[in-house]
Amino acid sequence: MSEKSFTIYVYGKRLTKRSSYTLKSRAAADRTVDSLPENLQHQNNKLAIRIKNLRRILQGSTDPDKLHDSLVSADAVASLIRFNKHFEMPQTVSSYYTGRQEQLDMLKSTLDVVNSREPQDHQKRFVIYGLGGSGKTQFCCKFAQDNREHFWGVFWIDGSSYENAKHSFAGIAKIGGVEPNENAAKNWLSSLQHPWLLLIDNADDPDIDVMRYFPGGERGVILITTRNPTNKGYGTDGSRFFHFDKLESEEASDLLLAAAASPRPWGVLTRSYAKRAAQILGYLPLALIHAGKAILEKLCSLNDYPEYYERTWNKIRRDRTRRSSHGHEDNHALNMSVYSSYEMIYLGLESKDNDQSRDAIELLKTFSFLYWENIEFDLLTNAASNPRREREDARAKERVVKSIPVQPRPKTWMKAFHDWAASVIEPLTRPSIILPAVLRDEDDDPFDEDRLRSALSLLVRLGMLTLHDDNNSYWMHPLVHTWVRQRPETSTAEQAVWCQAAATILAQSIFFQAPSTYVAQDEKTKRQIYPHVENVRKLQADIKKRFEENQRAPHWLWPLKLLVPQPGFGRLQATEYAKFSLVYLHCGYWSKAEELQLQVKDYLFAKLGPDSEYSIAIAFLLSRNYVWQTRNNEARVLQYQVLESAKRLYGPNHPTTLQIMDTLGATCVLGSRYREAYRLHQEVIESLSKLEGFGPEHEATWTALDNLANVKLRYFEHEEAVKLQLQAYEGMQRTLGPTHEKTLEAKDSLAAMYGFIGEEHLPLALQMSEEVTLIRKDTLGHEHPLTLKSMLTVAKIKTAMNQFKEAEEIFLKGLPIAQRNLGENHLGTLTARTWLGHLYWRQERYSEAQAIWEDIITKQTFEQTKRADGGHGDRGKWYSYHLAISRQHLCCKASFADIQIFIYSSSNVVLSALL
C-alpha cells in the first residue's frame, strides 16, 4: 500500500508523519489525545472542527490529485486527535445492518449532535419503543457508532431490572474513578464537562420507574429502548420517540438477502422469494436475520423457506423439550431465540397469578386466533354486552306479540314433541359458552369494562399488543400472533378451547336480528370482523383435521383420546354459523353464506323440525340468499315452504308470517308473477293495518309499500308507483333514519323511478342516487354489490340526461368489479352490460351495442329465473327488444320513445334482484 509524507504544525510543534490510506487504530489515537493536558485537548477539539471544514472545502476542488492528497492528510491528522475517549455499547453493529436510515438522519438532526460540545439548556432524551426483535438496540448502537466522535463518552445501562442497572452503573463509576454505585455514577455524569451519550436498553418492565436511571442536570444525551409505549413520554426533543414494529418491505428483503449472503446483484425472482419470506416473518429484523442464517447454513433455500418455516414450527410443537430428534439442536436454538423474549413475558404473566395477569393471558390466547390486526375495543365490549341486549329485545318483542289478538294454533303431536325437545333435552346438552373471564356478563358477575381496559393496558405496556388510537383497536405482530398460538406447551385441545373463545367473541359481537337502537353498530361490526371470521374458520378447520388424525392413533391411545374434547356440530356451532353467514352476506360473499346456512338448516330441521322458530328463521334467510344470487325459482319454492311453516307455528296474521309473505311477493316480481305478487302485498298491507302497533308508521308497512310500488311499476302505473315509493322512502327515513340500508334502497329506487314522470325530475334523481352511492362507498366499500347497484343507477340517469361520457366511465369502472366478484352471468353483471349497450345505442354506436346484446341473449343465462311455463320474464323481453332494435339500426327519436317504458320498468326488476 502506497504512503504519503506530510508535515503540519500543531501548537507550534512540527510533526512529520508517514500515513497509509487506512486509518490508524482508535486506541492509539485515543491515547495520543489522553496524553495532552486539558487545555491542549480543547485546542485539539477546535483543530478537529477546522480539519472537518477544510475537508468540506477541498471536496469542491477541481484538482483530483490535490483533493486526494489533502483528504488523506486531513484523515491522518484526525486519526491522531480523536475526541471520543470511552465507547461501550451492548452489542456490535451487524455488518449487514439495513434500513431505518431516514430515522438515523432525523435523530441526528433532532439531537443536534454536530454541536454536542456547545452548552445545552436541558437534558436531551429520545425513546425508541416497539416489539422485541424490531431492531431497537441495533438502531441505537448504529447511531452511537456513526456519531461517536461527537461524544467524549458513550455508555450504556441494562434497564431490564434495577439489579442489572446497578451493575451497569458500577462499571460507569469505575471509568469515572468514583465509588462503584449507581448514585456516584449518575453524579459523575451530571458534573462531566464533556458531552456524553447514555443508552438505557431494554427498559421494558412496566413496574420499573425509568426516571430513576436519569442523571440529574441538563447535560448529556439519553436514548431509551423499551417495549412499553408509556415510556415514550420521557422523550424531550423533536417527535420525542420512534415506534419500531417492522421494516418496510424493501428494507426487510434487503436485510434477509444480506444476512443470507446472497450473491449480488439480486434479480427479480430472488427479490420476490425474499419478499415472500419477509412477509411470513412480519418484516421483523431479528426474525429476518435468523432466517438469513438458516439459508446461509443450507438448512433451506430462499425459495422454499416458507415450507421450512412451517416444518420448523411443527418440530417445535412436537418436541416438548425443544430439542430436535434429528440432531438439529443449533437450528432449533436459532429459531427459538426469536421467540425467547415473548416467552419470558408470557411466563412472567403466569408467575404473577393475579386477576389482571390471568385476564391478560386469556385475552392474549384468544387474540391469537383472531386476525392479527384491527381487533377493536368495541368488538370486545359488544361481545360481552350483546347477549344481554338480545335477551332484553326478545322479551320486549314477546310482550308486543302477546298483545296482538291472534287465534291460537292447535299443536300437533309432532310439534309438541319438538317443543319438549327444545325445552328439556336441548338445555341438558347445551355446551357452556367459552369466553375469557373478563368478557363474561352474568347476573352475579356483570361485565366490567374497567377490568377489560386494565388487562389490555398491561399487554400494551409489555409490548405484546399495540394500540392504534385512531380507531381504538389493537394488533399483534404476526410473529407474536403465531408464537402465542403455537407455543410448544399448548396442546391441540387447548388450542380448540381458545379458538372457540375467539369464535364466540365474533358470534356474540353481532345480532341475528339487531334491536333498532343497535342496527348501525351491528352493520359496522359485520363489515369489520370479516377478516377475523375468515381466520377463525381457517384455524377451526386445521384443529378439526388434527383431531381427525388423532382418531387414527393406535388402539392403546384411545383412553387418552377420551380425555380430549372433540369438535362437533351442535347448538353452539349452529348459532355461530348462522351469524357468520350474516357477515358473509353483508360483505357480498353469498356462496360462503349459503354453505353455512345449509349446515344450520339441516341441523335444525333434524333436531327441531321445519316448524320451529329457528328453523323458519334460517330457511327464510337462505331463501333471501338465493334471491341475492338470482336463483329466484329456488327462492320462491323455499319461501312458500317457510310461509306454510310460519302459518302453522304463528298463525296467518302474525308479524313474522306477514314479513315472509311480503318477501315472497317481492320474489314473485322477479319471476314476472305480478298478479301473484300484487295479491300477496295487498294482503300484507291490509293485515298489518289491523295489528296493534303495526300501523302506517311501522317499518314493516313501509317495506310492503316499497314492494307494492315495484308491482305498480310493472303495470305501467307510474304515477301511483312513484307516489307509493315516495311514501315508503319518507316513512323509512322517519322510522329508521337517513343512512339505514332500507332507507338508502328506497331512495335509490325512487331516484330510478323519477324518469317516468318527466325529464324535469332527472336532476333530483341524479342527486339522490349520487348521495346513496357516496354513503355506500363509505360504509360498504367500492366493490360491494349494493355500491355497484347504486353506481348503475347513477349511470342510468346520466344516460337519460345525455351525459354519455360520464355514464360510460362509470360502466367501464364498475363492470370489471362486477364480473370479478359476481360472475359474468350474474344478473347484476348482465344488467350493467345491457345498460352499457343501451348507452352505445343512444350514441348511434349500433355495432357495439349489438355485440353486447347478442352475447347476452345467446347465452344460457336465464335458467335460474325461468318460469314454469317457459317464459323468461322481463329480462328476456328486454334483451330481445333491444337486440331487435339494434339489428334494424332505428333512429334515436322514434325508438327511444318506444322503448323507454321497457327500459325503466325493467330496470327495477333486474336491480331489485340484488336486494
Automatic annotation (TrEMBL):
Name of the protein this chain belongs to: NB-ARC domain-containing protein
Pfam families reported for this sequence: TPR_10, TPR_12
Organism: Penicillium egyptiacum
Entry superkingdom: Eukaryota
InterPro entries: NLR-like, P-loop_NTPase, TPR-like_helical_dom_sf
